[in-house]
Amino acid sequence: AVHGTHVAYVISRDQRLSDNHALLLAQAEALRLKLPLTIVFVLRQRSSKRAREQYEFMLKGLRELALAAKQLNIS
Fold first, then answer.
1. What is the pLDDT of residues 10-51, one digit of tens each?
2. How far is residue 40's CA from residue 59's CA, in Å, rounded to a whole number?
3. Which of 4, 20, 40, 57 reaches 20 to 30 Å from 67, CA-CA?
4. Who contacts 33 (Cβ-Cβ below 8 Å, separation ≥6)?
5. SS3 of residue 65 by DSSP
6. pTM value?
7. Which of 45, 43, 34, 25 is nearest to 6 (CA)?
């Protein structure tokens, strides 16, 4: 039985839509269950181990990913 309203894919290291086998599996489950697919990224507070530039680069990439996903009707 389906108990949720979405299939959530928690994106972490592989911050891309193409060549992402875990995302393809989540998409297949969403289609099988006839539920929308949602991509989730958990952003933690900046640690001293990463430079500000690294976070800015990552956030820029996540914004681009969100726009591309939106064009595919993925929230």
1. 998 788 888 889 999 999 999 999 999 999 998 877 666 667
2. 13
3. 4
4. 2, 7
5. helix
6. 0.75
7. 34
